[in-house]
Amino acid sequence: MKIFAALCSLVASSSAISATPFPPDFQWGASSAAYQIEGAVEADGKGKSVWDYYLSDKKIAGPDVNGNTAINFYDRNQYLKDIALFKKLGLTSYRFSISWTRILPDGTGKINEKGIQHYRQFICDLKAAGIKPLITLYHWDMPLTLAARGGWLNRDAIGWYADYAKVIFDNFHDLADQFVLVNEPTVEVAQNTLAAEKLAGKDVGTYPPLIPKKENLGNALKSLNHILLASAAAQNIFRKSGYEGALGIAVPLFPILTEKNAIAADINDAEMTDGIMNRWFLDSIYKGKYPEQVLSFLALNKIDADILPEDAKTIHQANFGFIGVNYYAPLYIRHDLNGDSDYAPEFYNPDDQKIAFTGPVRPDQLERLLAELRLNYGNPDVLITENGAAFKDEDIKVNGQVNDSNRCLYIRDHIGAVAKALEQGSKVKGYYVWSSHDNLEWMSGYRTRFGLIYVDYANQERTPKLSAEIYSRLIKGEIIKDGDCYRS
Predict the structure, then answer these.
(1) Is position 441 annotated as part of the catalytic site?
(2) Among 27, 43, 125, 345, which residue's beta carbon has the most beta carbons within 10 A?
(3) Are 384 and 430 in contact (CB under 8 A)?
(4) Which alpha helices (DSSP H) does 49-128 contain, by range?
(5) Which of 38, 367, 386, 441 is catalytic?
(6) Catalytic residue list contains 367
């Protein structure tokens, strides 16, 4: 399967959608990540992660950008108020991550019971509000002690993670039956590449280089292979333990597009990008093999990615219960004429399209992506584990309101794409907006806001945005017209 294609004509947004294709047990949720929201980075015996090191110790994103307070979500008094907001909005599920170093402060070894108790209490509080927990085991917060030993570049990380996963399953299987094993491996690898460049003193901005450059490709694919193998090991542990539930990986998928007049070099780079960013995961998980084009490129260029012949089969044989799809935008790819002749993809944003922080607004590409999963990968159970947008200068509080019209339209139209996919037979089981709150967006700090709930970082005051109201109405099955996304 090739997700890349020639430039598709723009698909006009529908003026309204109805939620009627959604079954009664469809999971309507929002997502978050521990480091981005919790704060309390030294509370209750928590150990350091790489992000504590990057932002608090080395301050590579600026003197005031760190997770020391974030949105204070570790505090029970605060998160109970947030849960009340979730319930009022009509959320039926909430996706959150557990901090590895709150459970195992050194990454391995002794369990921190205070960390276990905190998350058990949080899950109980969610369930008391009628909200189903979706637990992410790992959202980029590699323990600093293990990062010092190579992190995901070290094949031993498979065992480190498997041991951590067993602790999570043993302590939380009675409270939850859905687990996301890892979140967005390709973006994590890109963030770590960006961090390494910043630590080296390079001025490289705040947005990670999503597509690995040729000189970084070996390490990138090595990390991704180890992450997938670690996830497979965790799935096998869960199954052998006799626990009931469904496990999956949240993968960022990027439909790849090129211009109509694409030359051969553009098409080659688009195909390679698709193999690295999309099929590396989908082909291994559902077909038991890595994309031959990528493997051949590695062999031809003598690039070591620590891939053993049985690795992809091991990943496939884990038989994950669902695939988590994190979709924001497609990638428009062309060949960088100043790069290597055989592989130098660069992505760009076309001038004629609406652009969010994460790229072109193309709900039609989400529909297309779900069709690819249905037609070419056995129609697996799918959770849309992240979908959302941020727009420049939109999230401004005026007279007690945040009128984020572009986000309202984005959410409506992407839910519309999911509705069409359901009508076509896709097995989408849930949809989660990224994110529940404005929060710490990694290297971008607190400037970029994705939340349904506006956070005043000075006093931690919460204000549901217009998008929260619109999302609540969509959950109820209401038809949302364009005009509903604008209010005076």
Answers:
(1) no
(2) 345
(3) yes
(4) 50-51, 76-89, 100-103, 113-128
(5) 386
(6) no
